[in-house]
Structure formats: C-alpha cells, structure tokens
Amino acid sequence: MKQTMLLLVTGMLFLTVSAQTKEVKKPVTAGTTKKVVKDSTRVVKPASLGGSLFIKSYKSYASLAGLNTDDWQYPTIPGINFKFITGLTPHIDFVSTLGGSLSEYKKSNASFYFEKNNRSTLKPMVDLDVLFSFKFNTDKKRLVPYFKAGLGGSVYNLNLVLPYGPILGGGLQLNAGKGLFFYSQLIARNGVEDKAKPNFDYSIGVTWALKKKEIKKIEAPIPIEAPIALDKDNDGIVDSLDKCPSVAGIKKYLGCPIPDTDNDGVNDEEDSCKNVAGLIRYHGCPIPDTDKDGLNDEDDSCKLVAGTLKYHGCPIPDTDKDGVNDEEDACPNEAGIPSNKGCPEIQAKMNELAKSVYFSAGSSVISPKSFPILEEVAAIMQRYPKFRVEIEGHTDNVGNPIINKKMSQKRADALKAFFLSKGIDANRLYAIGYGLEKPVSTNKTPAGRALNRRVELKAKY
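RE: above sequence
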C-alpha cells in the first residue's frame, strides 16, 4: 500500500510540474509576435507563517480500517499547530507544521490505545510533519483545492517517538487577498510502526505572507512580416482594431453595432429604458402602469386608480355607495354602515318592536296582539338574511328566581318557534332566558318591575 501511495504522489508531482512548464504563445499587433517563456500570471507563494486548530481522530480511522475500538477512551483529541509555508513552484508548496495536544496513551501488548475506564493525567503530544502541497490552481484563484503528501512524527510525553508516513490528504485554500490565506483540510497519518497509531487530522487555519514573490515574465519578440490589413465586415475598421470583425459596426463602438443592453430590439441610443426590455412605441420602455397596481395601462380599465386584476385594474366596486366594498358588503344593493357589514341599521327598529311583544300572564303563550309585531320582525329578517337574532327573555324579582328564569327561557323559546314557523333558518336564531339577572330598572316599584319584564331582540352580524 505504501508503494502505491508513493507512486501516486510521484505521478501527481510529475503532472503538476509538466503543466507549469508548457510555453504560452500570445499574438500581438501587426509586425511582431511574442513568445512567452514564462507566464506572467504564475505566482509562487512567498514564505508565510500561520496556525490552525485541529481535531485528531484515532477512532474514526480505526473504524474505517475495521479495527477494534471498544476500549478507546479519548478517540478525538483537539490541538493547535503552527506552520511555515513557502512556494516551490506556482503549483507546489513546501509545508512544515509543529503541533501540540494533550492525550492519554498506555502501553499494552506492545501497542498503544485509549483505555476506557482509566482517568490518569493527560500528557503532551508534539507533532512535526513535513509535507508537499500539490495545488490544482495557482494562488491567483480565489479557491484552490490541493493534495498533500509527506512524512512526520510525534513525540509523546517527551520520551516516546512515533514515526508516521506516508501522510496523505487534501483540502481547500481560500485567497483572502494581500497574502492572507485560509485553509480547511483533512489528512490521514499512517503509522510506520505498530505503536504509531494511524489517525485522521482535520484542521482549519490561516497563514499570512512575510513578503510577496512573483516570477517575472520573460518575453522574446520575434519580428515577422506585417500582415495585409483586412476588413471582413466592410465597416471601415480593419479587423486588427475591430472588436466585432464579423459584424458591421461604427467607430464609436470600436467596430461593433450600437449595443442593445436589454435585448428588446431598440438600441441603447434610442432606448429610454436601456436596462429594462420594452417596446418600440414606448421608446424601449415597458408598457406603463400609471396607477402602480401591477396591471399595465393597455389592460387597465382604470389607469389612474389602483385596482385589482379581478376587476380589470379597477377598485372593488361599492354598488350602494355606503363605503363598504361589494366583496365585504352583506347588503351590496342597499346602503348600510360598516359595523353592520354594509347593511342598514336595524337595531333601533328591533328594540322598538320588542317593546310591543306580550305573553299571557304567568305563561309562555304569546299574546295574539303581538303577532303583527312579530310578523314585522320576521319580514325584516327575511329582507336582510345576513344577520342573526339573539332572543333574550327577562323577568322582575317577584316570585321564585329559579321559576322566573325557566319562564324567561320558555318565552324566548316561544318567540324562536314563531320565527321558525315563518321560515327563518334555525342557525340565525339563539334563544336565552336570563330571568331577573339583567334588570334595566329598579324592582322596588311597579313601574320599574314592568320595565324589567321584557324580551329583547338583538341583531348580530
């Protein structure tokens, strides 16, 4: 396995170096061409210092390798390291790291492992790795993935050396500018000996450059015969100076046509809305929406008043002109008030009629002289079908309160039965007897008691 890893690293190194040493040829203006021996975009990372936080996981590596981890106590160890980086080529960096952490190891059967039930003192572990970073892009790029390979070792408790190799991994580099780089990486440290337990090392960190270093470009001009000036699109601008050599244009736009930024068929010099597609008849602007209701003026029947799509750009109508629109008006064809959902005020009329409702003495039988009054109430309910009626029965304090309350309920129920007989929906009727609980006058005088013996008809919306 180690031989395979070594071949993989050698192959990647060869491919990376090969990719960098290719010559680049760039054509220039008539009369010369330049052979670029070294690309001017190649930047070698300068000497840099940095640090990172890491988490060392033995158990995840062992689990992946199928090792027994039942007796491991601290399978994941946090730590900190310091690093030095310098570029060797634009695609290869040399990296050395010095890290430290606290952990607990115990020797058993010529190997080291974490013991689950032992709480002995944690001891220092120092790591020193030497790596090469093979980058898939140069440091000019914002994000650069990379592959790492190298060797290293750890010293536990200052008296036990643990060699590691090969060390393999990869990560992502973020160029923050001005020589500042952030890193996130995962590497696998493979032990050379049994006592050096393999582990995964995940870290995030930062480095900053001590100075900037670039490879200067070296150009060797080679004189050639000047070509014949061509103008393929016959716009009077030779192809070497024409930004659009295949399309006729004008000098103002370097041989290109007048641009149409919003691609609406109206060029920018005639377009009043260059960045928004529009129509020729509106000088390149969209169809206007004068009242800003989301419906353009060509489809809006009320261009100057904001409305809705349902009403072709007009507001919701108010047929009876009572200030309550038809969609919220329970009586859209008859003016009313907002508190009654657009229906007329009828409570005063209901109160007046209720004063003329009588019953036979000591019973819940409706007096015949009350029938015309109740017929009028039923007619109002049929005319305005959107409101409900709460029928309340009330008594004075003469007699037994329990009997009085039962009597008030029976009288309310009698009125409800009358309205049901007139075709009023039961869902619109609610009968309740309060007895003497809600007097409107004193019960100390005959006149006051007469006022307290009553029924009330309350319209509810």
